[in-house]
Amino acid sequence: xxxxxxxxxxxxxxxxxxxxxxxxxxxxxxxxxxxxxxxxxxxxxxxxxxxxxxxxxxxxxxxxxxxxxxxxxxxxxxxxxxxxxxxxxxxxxxxxxxxxxxxxxxxxxxxxxxxxxxxxxxxxxxxxxxxxxxxxxxxxxxxxxxxxxxxxxxxxxxxxxxxxxxxxxxxxxxxxxxxxxxxxxxxxxxxxxxxxxxxxxxxxxxxxxxxxxxxxxxxxxxxxxxxxxxxxxxxxxxxxxxxxxxxxxxxxxxxxxxxxxxxxxx
Amino acid sequence: xxxxxxxxxxxxxxxxxxxxxxxxxxxxxxxxxxxxxxxxxxxxxxxxxxxxxxxxxxxxxxxxxxxxxxxxxxxxxxxxxxxxxxxxxxxxxxxxxxxxxxxxxxxxxxxxxxxxxxxxxxxxxxxxxxxxxxxxxxxxxxxxxxxxxxxxxxxxxxxxxxxxxxxxxxxxxxxxxxxxxxxxxxxxxxxxxxxxxxxxxxxxxxxxxxxxxxxxxxxxxxxxxxxxxxxxxxxxxxxxxxxxxxxxxxxxxxxxxxxxxxxxxxxxxxxxxxxxxxxxxxxxxxxxxxxxxxxxxxxxxxxxxxxxxxxxxxxxxxxxxxxxxxxxxxxxxxxxxxxxxxxxxxxxxxxxxxxxxxxxxxxxxxxxxxxxxxxxxxxxxxxxxxxxxxxxxxxxxxxxxxxxxxxxxxxxxxxxxxxxxxxxxxxxxxxxxxxxxxxxxxxxxxxxxxxxxxxxxxxxxxxxxxxxxxxxxxxxxxxxxxxxxxxxxxxxxxxxxxxxxxxxxxxxxxxxxxxxxxxxxxxxxxxxxxxxxxxxxxxxxxxxxxxxxxxxxxxxxxxxxxxxxxxxxxxxxxxxxxxxxxxxxxxxxxxxxxxxxxxxx
Lengths: 266, 601
Fold this sequence. Notes:
The complex is a heterodimer of chains A (about 270) and B (about 600).
Chain A: H1 2-48, H2 52-65, H3 72-87, H4 91-104, H5 109-121, H6 132-140, H7 145-169, H8 171-198, E1 203-206, E2 212-215, E3 224-228, E4 233-240, E5 243-247, E6 253-257, E7 261-263
Helix pairs in contact in A: 1-2, 2-3, 3-4, 4-5, 7-8
Chain B: H1 2-33, H2 35-40, E1 44-50, E2 53-55, E3 60-67, E4 72-73, E5 83-85, E6 92-100, E7 103-118, E8 122-126, E9 130-133, E10 136-139, E11 143-148, H3 151-156, E12 157-162, E13 166-168, E14 172-182, E15 191-195, E16 205-210, E17 218-224, E18 228-240, E19 243-256, E20 260-264, E21 267-273, H4 277-281, E22 289-295, E23 298-303, E24 317-327, E25 331-333, E26 338-348, E27 367-376, E28 380-389, E29 396-397, E30 401-406, E31 411-416, E32 420-421, E33 423-425, H5 464-486, H6 494-512, H7 516-531, H8 543-549, H9 557-575, H10 586-598
Parallel strand pairs in B: 2-11, 13-23, 15-17, 24-30, 25-33
Antiparallel strand pairs in B: 1-3, 3-7, 4-9, 5-7, 6-7, 8-11, 9-10, 12-14, 14-19, 15-21, 16-19, 17-18, 18-19, 20-23, 21-22, 24-26, 26-28, 27-28, 29-32, 30-31
Helix pairs in contact in B: 6-7, 6-10, 7-9, 7-10, 8-9, 9-10
């Protein structure tokens, strides 16, 4: 009995310590959520009052508070910052904010409407031109990366089921089941494959009004090797104070002034 | 008057049908009897003008005959000044076959009849021209034709063509043609043929149609260019010198489509008597006669519409116009419809110009224009506008302007209707017509910010690496499982499929079984499918001994014992004379079958 009592006592103490730690963590989470809500309310009030800079500062701070958070809440904050930029008259920047927000909530119709409106005001082509290619791209891009991976997992399960049937039963029906499983898996994995194939490491948008000179080196006197049109999507390769090195769609690399580029991974 | 047309039709029909049908029959006979005989003779050509002397205005025939040929063509006709030749039609095929003392001889010929009409008096030489026959090129001899003035026709007939000397491009004009014949011979005439060689042949001249003849003054129809019919109007008798003439008139409207000079060649009016019926078939009668009256060639100058001073709103109207406007009512309530009929009359292209669009005229801003309807004739253009005054302040319908090119003055002018006073009463209890302008009061804008935090987070999802590993593991697992399963044989083989199906088949057989014997057969079939044997192998077999016989037990001992007991009960039911009441409960059999399958069989 004594031999059993000591380990049980140790286990009980450990359990109590774990519960206490969990309670402290929960208390901390609640406090953070309350601070978050207060800051958000302050930003909304500033926006309603027309104090765009205050609203921008609050929502930017909220974004910075949880840099790894993703999903609808992050999309909401980015979208609201897009509204702020639009009201401030920085229409191209608002295009960047809405594009960034859609990366977290790609099926959000409100964000799409705001993006298309901002692009129209900025005299850019629509983000969704409505042709077959654009529709296909929008269909494949209608999922966040996590959703796309979940879909791919579902496809993998169907593939496993089809292959198991084929292994156990064989014959024509088995082959059909395996093929159907493979086709379904491919279809369900298509968004993930498309995302992995087309995603840039550090996507960005050129938000300068006129065509931006892409220079060979980060100085004003360097040769212009290309021109980046407003609204063009580029990839950020490097950065120096005041300058950003970008890779254009045709793989040309060069330096542009840092304010002319808007990072989309936010 | 219509008699001459009837006679002419009969002639044409006879000429068209008789020679062709005879020629075809002859050609068929020739082909059947002696095709070789004809082929051996060389083709030859001959030509003549029939008659060799004609009156000016008459048409002679250039007859070209090719002997001993099955096919041929005349590529082109020579050009002779003052002579109209052609067109060249298809040749008539004629054949002749005779049999003398048993020998067959045949002859085939092709005949063209080409119209020749002199345009002036004098002697004409038609130079030799080429004829192709059965691949060979033959040449006709030189031919002569004498054309003489028909002085008698000049005395007995009238042909006057009245046309303007100058017109503007696009301006419709009328050509009046008057024909007449001396009243003393009028009763002996039955043929009237007006030859207008320029009709339909001059580029840049478009025929708009005939001016309608009032029914009361219609004198019937005469032939036009030997093919068509032309309705003529009687103008009564006219005295020219000592003679009286019965005069007919036809008027045709034209429009010149491009500037330049149009030259109309000489025209002729043929009048006379031509016998019909049998007399015509045998070559005519001695009573036949024709006279020709000639009208000289004339020219028409088509002037271009000037570019200088052309208003931007020129409607394309050319001519002399007058305009009048008539509303269907003049006392209306605001918004009520007024049908305003604007009518343009005069000499000009009334059918072709674009009527003014009142909706585009500033003067008609106080009106809503709902639409138009149009009626077009050669002498009148009527457009009915459906207007509605928008408010009670409107007091008149403004003039409707039409920019025309006045051919009399030679400049552009505006033809207007008179302003029409109207009374517009306010609409009781209304604020006016709704604004139909396309401008919208809405303005697109951003959607508002979102004030409620979103609580849904990202769903938990595997990483991309985990997905890749999972995919690889799935493929590996499939290969391993496949290899393992096939170590015991192909799962799709008939025996394996029967083994999997055995339980289902047993259940179905037991449901259908009515006697213990049928139940035994069902059980034996189940055991055979599971063991890969025939059902007969299980007849009389002891399951316990069978299970022990192999190196490894095929069946668990307890299951084998129960199976033996079941089979014994069924045998007893069969051989003990039991009726269907001796059957074993199907559920019991199925339970045992499940144990058998789970027990290793």
